Predict the structure.
Amino acid sequence: MMNSSVFRNGYKVHHYMNTIWRRHSISGSVGVPIHKIHVQQELQVSKAFYSRFNGRRTKEMEFHVPVHSIISTKTYSTTLLASITNSGVVRWYLEMIKTRPILIKSVTASLVYTAADLTSQTMTRQSLEPYDVIRTCRMAGYGMIILGPTLHLWFNFLSRVFPKKDVFTTFKKIFMGQAVYGPIMMAVFFSINAALQGEKGTEIVARLKRDMLPTMINNVMYWPMCEFIIFRFVPVPLQPLVSNSFSYVWTIYITYMANLTKAVANS
C-alpha cells in the first residue's frame, strides 16, 4: 500500500515537471534561450524521485530533455528572416529587383514619400483646407527620380566596401550614412524642393541655414537605430525596401520641414 502511494505521488511530480518543461519548450520555441542550469536542476529533482522506483516503470517514466527545443536567439532570428524572405510578396519583390532593381526601388520610394506627405498634410492642415496636390507630386517625384536610385547605389556601395555583417562593420556603415549620405541628401532635398517652389538662390541658402541643423540633429536621433537593424540583419537586396519602411515616419517630418514658410535671406 505504501509503495502504491509513493508511486502515485512520484507520478504526479513527474507530470508536474513535464508540464513545467513544456512551458520552457514553448518559451524556447519563440526565441527565449533556456539556460543549462535550469535543465540540470530539473534533471536532479527528477532523478531523485525516480531513483525510488526500480524496474521497467522507472525507465518508462524517465524524464527526457527535448533537445530540439533548446534554440538560441540567433538561430530564431535566422529562421524568422528566412521565413520572411520566403513569403510570396517578398519573393516577388526580390525577383523584380533582379530584373529592374532601380525602377522597383524608385517606385517604392515614390510611394513612401506620397503616403508620408499625405499623412503630414493631414496632421497639419485645417479641417476645410484642401490637400496640396502639387506638394505631394513634388515629394513623389523626389522619391522616384532621386531617392530611389541613390539608395540603390548607396547600399550596394556599402556592401562592397564593407562586406562583413559584424557589429563593428555595422557601426562603420552607420557612421558613413550619418557623415556622408545623410547630410548630402538632406541638402539636396531641401534645395530641390525650395527651387520647385520658386525660391531663389539666396532664399535656398537661408532655408538651409535655418532648417538643416535641427533636421540633422533629429536625423542622428532617429536613423542610427534603424540603420543598425538594416545593416545587421537585412540582406542587401531588401535593404532599400526596409529603409523606405523606416522612412515613412521620417518623411512625415521632413516633408513638413521642407514646406515651411520661406526663410528671410540676409541682404
